[in-house]
């Protein structure tokens, strides 16, 4: 049998009607809004109608620091959920929606891989149910109303040199990072510097994913700061009377999307903020819905446990009251060898010395989850055919020294059957007591919160604010926003703010160059290093390999 690509495996799958998947999940058809045969939105009224039903167990899937060798976090999340159902457990998975930026850029799709995927994968990776388009439209409506207000006399006295709201597009497009608009004369608007963020970095995305319902979302939209007046006072979307129309654009986008795994397991895919520049978790509403419908809900946080899992704990759990019962940390032998200094082209050969050098990265993430977040965890080794017994034994031995079990995850090749061993350990962990803890108290001063994240989670010597960030810190504190949690914008490729420092580096500081209040989302974004909110395409974009034939069949998507 020849090698099959992810998209070929997905296209061969005999999908079940979404009405049958809904019935399997316990969702009455009255709550279902179908988008064709295989995907549907679920009315948020279902949550209110199930409020007296007890929640199931929440399982968080996170990973080691990512490498070009890939870790397979979504693949593991999907395979684990199928594995739980193979054990006879009532399980659902709640994931983020992919952004078109990475789909056409470097990373490719985000619907899992091999025999652990969610389908229809082409729809999920492309336009899906239009949520991202609605979020971009709401973001850009606010931008248009802001500039129109200035053009029409600027009654709020908005300082055009102190506008913080950017336009959004869901594409990697470096050309749009810094632009000048409003050119061409008095009737074409007021000339000013502007820029675009990728839609997944928009505060509208974060607010939608953290909202408890449509009313809460509308209030969050109203609190969003678009800029400052000449008097230094924040100007909000509510001041521009924009939140009602923005919420109208988002009335369907806020409803969770129901799909299925290759094995017919019900799956929610909803919302998709990036974890290196936003909070990196799927929507609170989808997670809550899954917890009401199943005994075990598997969800993931973006990138590694220093970024996605920290924000899951300190932002999503803090705001929602959600509490995970267990954590899965995904690693691969190949990625650990990369952290040990082996080039990507040479990762297939056994190299115990490099593996031992790379293991501290995994062990630091394990220690953080156990000792900082206070949660029981298991290491899932995403299996590759090139892994040797000696390499797997070394990983297992080192993790056991920390009191953590290792499970071999073979879900890419075997689907749910290959996830049963991991599922058994997860079920065991869910019954263990845990001492769930935030990294910091939200009432602490901003600098103390930053230091807590940098020293406890990144293992840095501390945090340094540049002159611009110091000035912003003073302003934020004076305006009374200092009690908000922190959303770190940091490279995903290192514990530090320098992508080149692999493994578990020591003796570094984290430099914060910008602090921005996202009052609607409910957090303060701290930009570190050279992180950008609008990525660019690589030299050879994934888009060059994507095609569609005369029958509408897509190829090359992943």
How would you describe what is shown here?
The protein is an alpha/beta fold and 558 residues long. Strands 1, 2, 3, 4, 5, 6, 14, 15, 16, 17, 18 and 19 form a twelve-stranded mixed beta sheet that branches. A four-stranded mixed beta sheet has the order 20-22-23-21. Strand 24 and strand 25 form a beta hairpin.
**SS summary, helix count:** 19
Low-confidence stretches: none
Estimate the mean pLDDT confidence: 94
Measured distance between first and last alpha carbons: 19 Å
Overall geometry: globular
Task: Give the helices and strands, then pairings.
Blueprint: H1 6-12, H2 18-25, E1 32-34, E2 40-42, H3 45-49, E3 57-63, H4 73-86, E4 91-95, H5 100-104, E5 112-113, E6 116-119, H6 121-125, H7 131-151, E7 158-163, E8 167-169, E9 179-181, E10 192-194, E11 196-198, H8 203-210, H9 214-223, E12 225-229, E13 234-236, H10 243-249, E14 257-261, E15 266-269, H11 284-293, E16 296-300, H12 308-320, E17 326-331, H13 333-339, H14 352-372, E18 377-382, H15 389-401, E19 406-409, H16 411-414, H17 420-430, H18 446-457, E20 462-465, H19 467-478, E21 486-489, E22 509-518, E23 523-528, E24 547-548, E25 554-555
């Amino acid at each position: 049998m020849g090698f099959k690509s992810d998209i070929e495996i997905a296209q061969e799958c005999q999908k079940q009607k979404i009405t049958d998947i809904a019935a399997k999940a316990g969702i009455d058809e009255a709550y279902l809004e179908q988008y064709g045969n295989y995907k549907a939105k679920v009315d948020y009224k279902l949550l209110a109608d199930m409020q007296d039903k007890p929640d199931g167990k929440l399982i968080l899937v996170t990973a080691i620091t990512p490498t070009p060798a890939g870790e397979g976090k979504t693949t593991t999340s999907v395979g684990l959920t199928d594995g739980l159902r193979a054990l006879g457990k009532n399980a659902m998975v709640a994931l983020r929606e992919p952004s078109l930026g990475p789909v056409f850029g470097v990373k490719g799709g985000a619907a899992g891989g091999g025999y652990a995927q969610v389908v229809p994968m082409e729809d999920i990776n492309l336009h899906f149910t239009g949520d991202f388009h609605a979020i971009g439209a709401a973001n850009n409506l606010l931008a248009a109303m802001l500039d129109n207000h200035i053009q029409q006399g600027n009654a709020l006295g908005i300082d055009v040199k102190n506008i913080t709201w950017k336009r959004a597009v869901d594409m990697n497009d470096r050309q749009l990072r810094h632009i000048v608009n409003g050119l061409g004369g008095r009737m074409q608007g007021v000339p000013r510097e502007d820029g675009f963020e990728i839609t997944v970095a928009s505060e509208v995305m974060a607010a939608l994913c953290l909202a408890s319902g449509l009313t809460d979302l509308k209030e969050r939209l109203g609190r969003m700061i678009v800029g400052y007046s000449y008097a230094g006072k924040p100007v909000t979307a509510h001041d521009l009377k924009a939140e009602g129309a923005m919420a109208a654009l988002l009335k369907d986008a806020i409803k969770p999307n129901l799909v299925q795994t290759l094995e017919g397991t019900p799956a929610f895919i909803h919302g998709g903020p990036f974890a290196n520049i936003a909070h990196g978790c799927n929507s609170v509403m989808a997670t809550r819905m899954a917890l009401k419908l199943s005994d075990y809900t598997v969800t993931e946080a973006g990138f590694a446990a220093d970024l996605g899992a920290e924000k899951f704990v300190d932002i999503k759990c803090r705001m929602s009251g959600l509490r995970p019962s267990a954590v899965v940390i995904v690693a691969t032998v190949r990625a650990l060898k990369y952290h040990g200094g082996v080039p990507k082209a040479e990762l297939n050969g056994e190299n115990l010395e490099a593996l031992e050098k790379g293991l501290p990265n995994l062990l630091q993430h394990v220690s953080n989850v156990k000792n900082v977040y206070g949660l029981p965890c298991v290491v899932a080794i995403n299996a590759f055919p090139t892994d040797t017994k000696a390499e797997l034994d070394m990983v297992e031995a080192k993790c056991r020294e920390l009191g953590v079990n290792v499970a071999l995850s073979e879900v890419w090749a075997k689907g749910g059957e290959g996830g049963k061993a991991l599922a058994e350990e997860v079920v065991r962990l869910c019954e263990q007591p845990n001492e769930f803890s935030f990294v910091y108290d939200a009432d602490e001063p901003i600098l103390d919160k930053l230091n807590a994240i940098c020293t406890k989670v990144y293992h840095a010597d501390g945090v340094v604010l540049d002159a611009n960030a110091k000035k912003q810190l003073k302003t934020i504190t004076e305006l009374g926003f200092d009690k908000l949690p922190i959303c770190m914008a940091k490279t995903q490729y290192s514990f530090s703010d320098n992508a080149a420092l692999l493994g578990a580096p020591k003796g570094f500081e984290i430099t914060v160059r910008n602090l921005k209040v996202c009052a609607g989302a409910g957090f303060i974004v701290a930009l570190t290093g050279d992180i950008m909110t609008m990525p660019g395409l690589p030299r050879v974009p994934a888009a060059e390999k994507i095609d569609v034939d005369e029958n509408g069949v897509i190829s090359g998507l992943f």
